[in-house]
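Example complex used in Figure S2.
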Amino acid sequence: MKRRSFLKGTLAGSTVAVAVGAGLLSPRSVLAAWPQGAFDAKSAADAMSGLFGSADNTTSGEIKIKAPDIAENGAVVPVTVETSMKDVSSIAILAEKNGTPLAANFELSATAKGSVSTRIKMGKTSDVIAVVKSGGKLYTARKNVKVTIGGCGG
Amino acid sequence: MANSIRIRAKAAAGEVSVKALITHPMETGLRKDNKTGEKIPAHFIKEVKCEHNGKVVVNAQWGAAVSKNPYLAFAFTGAKAGDSVKLSWVDNKGESDSAEAKVS
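Predicted assembly (258 residues):
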């Protein structure tokens, strides 16, 4: 009898495991477009190639980054990226010295203006890099932000 | 996660500016609980989508480096007062929410 109940127990256990496995998998399949590799990348160049397929970029004066020179709290650093370029298909924001630099990528439709604002976390003093994809090419701009208190649990 | 989004869309000079605030913990998965010393599991928004009258205007992919209770602002053209602007998000746990606003 004991063996019976033992078997039953294991069977029930495995069904739960399968259900959990399926539950873990479903959100991932929904988010197939989310570039895991780019967000896991440890360097800004790797993040760019993971996101756009290439890290080749040109520094451009047509991109403006609005961010504080000194961020008192690295957990909340307001960043605005603006560009006057035409045909902007996406704007990405990276914090170069974060463990994983890529913070956010905004894919813009033809009607959207080349301007996005958000707030990001920065672990330490670092350059904020804005990457603008325009006409299939990548353009970047940087701005140094001094962080006095880190944003990663510090 | 109901009512996690506050969104405003305002038309001025031919363009509509959208501002939104989302209530979300945005845990990186690196932080430790001060009391137990255990890691707090990652919990952050991965995708944010904004639609104008059903057409996608901005589709954003976020990492855990976006601040807690994220703020987001952008602008687009081709909309008029009374149009609907819808914002929706999905996080790494599969939770989601959406909210709609009328352009004013």
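The two ends of chain A are 56 Å apart (CA to CA). The longest helix of chain A spans residues 2-30.
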